[in-house]
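Hello K.,

You asked for the raw outputs rather than the summary table, so here they are, unedited. I folded two proteins back to back in the same session to keep the settings identical. This is the first:
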Amino acid sequence: MSTLAELRDTIEADLKDSGNAIWSTAELDHHIRHALRAYSAVDPQRLAAVVACTVDEREYALSDISGALIDVTDVWFPYDAAAPEYPPRRPPWSLLNGALYLEAVLAPEAGESLRVFYTAPHTLSGLDSASATTLDAAGEQVVALLAEAYAAFQYGASTINTVTASGWTPRHLREWAADRLALAQQELESIRTRRIRQQDTRTHWPLE
């Protein structure tokens, strides 16, 4: 998987600005960050964590599970990683002011744990101190397309009624950016559709 520097190089090449004559690395990083958020909103990381329970405590801070959490998708309680039950027990739960609240009939006892399934934003190695890239190749392509579109739109807006030495005209930039954005949106829609189908497959058993 690519690092921030490698993805930025790809974007600079597509923008024909490898020398950063038009877009600074800081500007490109801003657009990459924006693109990463947009991609994560459609296809976030899907993670799980085991949380040690406190006796009689029903409320657990989500910040203890993940520093950047989007949503909780499922909770298993009680959960024993050494001997997980099948099917797992899924108690009622709710999210209250950034905390997970267990609404199980019985409160946690000593030694019990809960397993939380959640979504989180993707990270790109080198961006905002991230140490790993969690995007796959398809995700990287979408992020690059989005970042390129954002960069072109930004520069096009700033050069309206001006003459530039870059070879890009405002109209050319808008058209090029719109094409990149359309490609990215097609990929995002394809990903969204695939995720919905995967979820349907998991939750609906075929009839025999």
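The second followed immediately with the same parameters:
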Amino acid sequence: MLQGINLACVRGDRELFKNINFSLEAGGLMQVHGPNGSGKTSLLRMLCGLSNPAAGEIRWCDKAIHSLDGDYFAVMTYIGHLSGTKDDLTVMENLRISSALAGSEISADQAKEALEYIGLSGREALPVKVLSQGQRRRVALARLLVCKTSVWILDEPLVALDVAAVKLIQGLLEQHLLQGGMVVMTTHQEIDIAAASITQLQLA
């Protein structure tokens, strides 16, 4: 179970949100909504342990995530709203290196299979700098096909994707949830995802 308890976020002299509470169990989806500047990305970064809340606590299996060292990060995958790819590396190198850095080394065959599924077949050896924004996004999202984590935290995963890619990611998320995974995501695009439970979290 992933929990947020009385979370607050302050940027400079401005309070973005406070008293945010939620509980997410296996198979659960939480969609975070709010206008630009409301703290959506800040909240996701807190859930990843990349920043600390101004108040409150984030818990995994009833323990504060900052007390779990690598145990929490071993079950969590974060993909930010930027692709996070390296321009001079090839598509395959990006996927294999990002997976290794996340603690999940994959073979060239595994990478090729994931890239084919995500719609990048034939582009494995291209440097990422020659790809479109949508293709770069697919490279980043290909990590979801090879990671073995249960908690996926995704900031605007559908940005720059075409209709076919959105449907593909929808199916991938639904399969993950069906297998007992959890998803926390922000998105400005409409997407209908089947899940055991759905939480809509609105930030002012």
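The radius of gyration is 17 Å.

Happy to rerun anything if the numbers look odd on your end.

Regards,
P.
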